[in-house]
Predict the structure.
Amino acid sequence: MDIASGTTTIANGRLIDGTGAAPVANAAVHVLDGHITYAGSEAGAPQVPPGTQHIDAEGGTILPGLVEAHYHPTYFNVAALEDLDIKYPVEYVSLLAAANARLALECGYTAARSGGSLFNVDVWLKKAIEAGVTPGPRLASSGREICGVGGLMDWNPDFRKIGMEGLVLLINGADEGRAAVRDLVKDGVEWVKTYPTGDAAAPDTNDHHTLCMTFDEMHAVVQTAHNHHLKVTGHCRATEGIKNALRAGYDTIEHGTFMDDEALELLLQRDVPVIPALQFEYASVVHGPDIGMPQAVIDGHQETLDGGTESARRILNAGGRLGMGGDYGFAWNPHGDYAKELSFFVEHVGFSPVEVIKCATRTGAEIMGRADEFGTVAVGKLADLLVVDADLQNEISALEDRSRFIAVLQGGFIRAGRLATVSVTDASRVR
Ligand SMILES: [Zn+2]
């Protein structure tokens, strides 16, 4: 991805640097050639050369670009799970994914880790973003997901004669788990997304207390993936599924809903980050009745919301790491709502805005394995920054409102926000 040249300063705001440190009032951030050269009090800032671009934070907040840690670029705000694999062909889904990526960047998300993608779209979406063909977050790809036959993601009945190969690799046994990972290695993914457990969405045979993969299958996936330098994550709600994932060597845990003492201990032993994605559950409970969601499903989402909220609190209090990401891409939890996750954690889980911003920036970058490049406002890091006209310590929900964004910077370029100029497609990039 290109980086800007020249000098930029951002001043007249408070700095929340993503480390969890107390905000710095009257702060300034300086950028040279796409990298941060100063971050601290405006009074202590060095001189800048003539011709420097100045961004006025208008008394608001300067913070790192946000990281969506559980991003589904190909989920196109579907109303039903079946839509994900049979409604549109891959050609159209690819275009929708590019639109979702642009939207995420406009929403202040300068990086994102895919939590699964139809076909191999996110691998190629990443290439297009890196090449400057289309705007979007710095991506980590994961392609197709892995689930046991008959598990949560295996919803098409056999009589329909519909394959699931665009969405999931369905496995029976450790050998098929290894074969699935080898397919993904060839696809070029960085993360292997699996389904160790069920979910409230499937109350009949794969509810949130069921397992969808065996320990042997999960262990085979991890061994094969790690051998090829890929990381592994999984949809983990049921307590036993969380423990299986931690014992099998998973690199992150998605949801981590029903943690008991032993699961928490296993988690902390290896300091494995968890991405709870609670706003999805909240939205399901709130909007479920309007969209005809069965009561059993709504009840399951409520239990998931309660369990997930309690687990998130325990993880934070025990010194564990949480990433912010939220399964956006469903009709009742659409793309563009990403920052509602942060508001939920402040309003309903009891995190401070500074804590939740750390989860959404530094921890997100750590999850992506790129904390040395971005995720905090520190000298030497890429200038992936967000400038908002609000005091986020008192108004975290301002992050939900793009009209409050003065600038979204990525590698020092103003990519979105009120100061962004309209981009003109560079035809030379399209190759
Ligand atoms: Zn997901």
About this structure: Residues 70, 72, 115-116, 327 surround zinc ion (CB under 6 Å).
